[in-house]
Amino acid sequence: MGSTITGTGSYLPEKILTNADLEKMVDTSDEWIFTRTGMKERRICPENMASSDLGAEASKKAISDAGINPDEIEMIICATITSDMVFPSTACIIQNKLGLDNIACFDISCACSGFIYGLELARNLINSGQYRKILVVAAECMSRVTDYTDRSTCVLLGDGAAAAIVSYCDDEYGIIDSYLGSSGKYGNLLYVPAGGSRLPASHETVSGRLHFMKMEGSALFRIAVNAMSDAIKKIFERNNVNPEDVSLLIPHQANIRIIQGVAKLTGFPMEKVFVNIEKYGNMSAASVGVALDEAVKSGRIRRGDLICMVAFGAGLTWASNLVRWGKNG
Ligand code: ACO
Predict the structure, then answer these.
(1) Separation of CA 266 and ligand 1 centre (Å)
(2) Among the options 92, 105, 252, 255, which is catalytic?
(3) Which of 6, 189, 232, 312 can bridge 318 by disulfide, Cβ–Cβ 3.0-4.6 Å?
(4) What is the mean pLDDT of residues 102-125?
(5) What is the mean pLDDT of the chain?
(6) Phi, psi of 327, deg, nearest 5
(7) Minimum-distance ligand 1 atom for the alpha carbon of 314
(8) Selecting from 2.60.40.10, 3.30.230.10, 3.40.47.10, 3.40.50.2000, what CATH number does the domain 2-171 have?
(9) Minimal-distance CA residue to ligand 1 atom 33
(10) 8, 162 contact by CB (below 8 A)
């Protein structure tokens, strides 16, 4: 028995934050942002919504795309670093919004690698024979941890959610393999200092802007290119796959120059690399999932295609997988 993706969905909030808008907020320019990152605009979650709302909408679309009854879902894995609350888990909140009860629900925190980590967890739980249908959802409100006075980070991030139904299958299609890695020694390159058990919220943490993301951009850039390239090479070697065998590479959308660097190091022409960074910026765990959904819905992935997803994120974490796409259309 194997596992395959039988439905995908994504949800992007309507509000758009353009480079021109950012020019009015910090000392930056459309030209700098676009040439250094490839981004033109990003989506922003409205005040009355949170990650679970975005995640629930994406999940409904994935459920409908899979053509299943929501009651068939036996587990929800939610990848997020911007959970609605410290607890309960965003997965449990999404469960309630979907009208489901009495199934296993939990969050995973792997930042931008979260969607691929979630798919791998689902694959192994299904392959163990214990579960048949698992909802993997990645939901992020990065705008909530973004300091809109810090030009080095605020231009990069956006909000969104994506979901996939992972189901058992008994043919050769599906999630073939995944490679997961992390390196805690780089944790200081990307983090939110306060709001956890080390620095609980206080007047000082708020006035010190410690609830916003801190980032060492240039160091991350170098590590990201190497870590994602290495993750692709490792999974290719393990499965005797070459770039020519793969129809589409779906990388995390952190910076177009990181994506181009990874493509160059791994031998992928950019025509075979999915890019939507100009529309959404970096949505952390949701980026790869939204890209997957858009690639499927726009006809860039067809039944029988071999695809590779790859990401890196805070932790630092990284992940890649290989999927033989089994769904029609
Ligand atoms: N507008 C104008 N100038 C800017 C901006 C801006 N928005 N941001 C930085 N600059 C300036 C800097 O101050 C610096 O000026 P200086 O030379 O006078 O000091 C200059 O531009 C160059 O800065 P660098 O940091 O060297 O620029 P770089 O080419 O490295 O691009 C960037 C910066 C875009 C952040 C890049 O390093 C990057 O993308 N890194 C990876 C970030 C990433 O992927 N983070 C993941 C976050 S999400 C997550 O995992 C949760």
Answers:
(1) 24
(2) 252
(3) 312
(4) 98
(5) 97
(6) -90, 140
(7) 50
(8) 3.40.47.10
(9) 217
(10) yes
